[in-house]
Design brief:
The structure is a homodimer.
Chain A lengths: L20 H24 L6 H8 L3 H7 L3 H29 L3 H21 L1 H10 L9 H23 L8 H20 L7 H16 L2
Helix pairs in contact in A: 1-2, 1-4, 1-6, 4-5, 4-7, 6-8, 7-8, 8-9
The structure holds a DNA duplex (30 and 30 nucleotides).
Chain lengths: ~220, ~220
Amino acid sequence: MASKEILGRVPPERPGQPGGKRDRNRRARLAQLREAGLRLFLAHGVETVTIDDIAKEAGTAKGNFYRYFEDKEDLVAGIVQPAGEILGEAFDRCLAALEEARDERSLFGAYQTFALGMLPLALGHPDVVRLYLQESRAPAEGARAPIRALADDIRARAVQLTRYAVEHDLLTVRDPRVSALAVVGAVEQLAWSFLNGELDAAPDEVARTLISLVLRGIRT
Amino acid sequence: MASKEILGRVPPERPGQPGGKRDRNRRARLAQLREAGLRLFLAHGVETVTIDDIAKEAGTAKGNFYRYFEDKEDLVAGIVQPAGEILGEAFDRCLAALEEARDERSLFGAYQTFALGMLPLALGHPDVVRLYLQESRAPAEGARAPIRALADDIRARAVQLTRYAVEHDLLTVRDPRVSALAVVGAVEQLAWSFLNGELDAAPDEVARTLISLVLRGIRT
DNA sequence: AAATAACGTGACTGTGTAGTCATTCTTCGT
DNA sequence: ACGAAGAATGACTACACAGTCACGTTATTT
C-alpha cells in the first residue's frame, strides 16, 4: 500500500529500549506532529498546509519534522495508516464470515461482523475518518495519494465482498458493483455529515436507520 | 452563493457588439481558460495547480488570466456555476412537482422530474461533475470554497425535499435527513465511479439499478 | 486611415516554502 | 562524571508562485 520505502524516518536504529526517556520523547513528538498535521489538514486541507505550519502547530522546529517524516505525504500516510489497518482487518473478518455463511441470515451476520470491526475506528479515530472522507477523491498524486489509495482499496474490497455473496447465492442484486458502491457512498456520506455535526441525532439512531436502509437496499 | 463582488472580471464595459470579433475572441479565451483549468484541476487537484500552469495550458500569457478572472477561486466559481444553476432549477422543479403531489405515485414522478433535470448536467458537463465530486468535501476556504458551498447547498436541498415529502405524508421514513443523505451519498458515489470509468456498465443500466435502489431505500 | 481603447505579453517584484546543515542541547552507556 | 550519539534548533539556500505593469498588438469607431 505504501509506495515509499519505509513509513516514517524514525526506525533507522533507535537507541534506548522501550520505556526509556528517548523512546517516550520520540513517541510523544511523533504523536504531536501527527495530531498537529491532522488538525491543520482538517481545517485547511492537506495541500494548503505547509511544513512550517505543522512544525509550529506541533511546537517544534521545522528541521525536526524531517527527522520523523520524509515529507508531507509520509506524514499523511502515517496519520491514515491505523485506519487502513483496522479497515483491512474488518474486511478480512467479514470475508471469513462470508465464507462460512450459507443463507441470508448468516449474510447479515457477516455484515454485522464488519460493522462491529469498524467501531474502534469510528470511536477511536473519528478525525482520521473525517480526513479520509474529506480527501478520499483527491488525484492519486502528491501528499494526498495515500488517502486516495485507501479509498480505492475500500471500494475494491466492498465490491469484492458483494460479488462473493452474489456468486455464492447469498444475495441477489442487479449488479454487485452498483449495489456495493451505493452502500459505500451512503455510509460515507452519513459518516461525513454526522462527524461534521450536521446530524445531531444520536449515533445509535443513525446507525439503526442506516442499517435498515442498507438491508433494504441489499435485499433481493 | 458567490461571496465575491461579480463573477469574473470581464463585464466592466465591453466593446464590440455580440458577434463582433472582440466578442468572439473574448468568449474563446474564457472558454480556453475554463477548459484548461478544469483539465488541470481534474488531473492534479485544485490547490496544487498554479496560475502559471493554467495560463500555459490555455496557451495565453499569465497577465491575461487576470483580465478574465480575479484569482483561482473566481475561475473555479466560473467553472462550477453552470452546474449550480442546472441543479438549482432541477431542485426547484422537483419541489414544485412535490407541491402538486398527493400520493406515493406522484412522489415518484417528482423524483423522476428531478432525474430528468439532471440529464443536461450529466451529458453536457460530465467533467464539471467530476470536479465537483472530487473536491466537494474540501474545507470552505480558499479556491475550493465555491465547490464546497455547492455541496452544502445540494445536501441542504435534498434534506429539504425529503422533509417536505414526509411532512405531507407522501413518504414515511425513520429520519428524513438520514434518508436524504444516504441517497445523495449513493448517487454521488455511483456517479464518481461511473465517470471515472470504474463502472463499465451501460449508463442506462446503472441508472436503472440506482433508481430501484433509491426507491427501495426510500419506500416506507 | 487615423485615433482610441481593449487585448495580450512576459519580465519583474515581493513573498513564501521545501529541504539542508552547522550548531547546541539532551539522553545514554560506562 | 564524562564522552558519544541521538535529538532539536533556526538560519539559510534555492526556487516557485501570485499578482503587477509598461509596452506592443489588434479590433473598433469615426
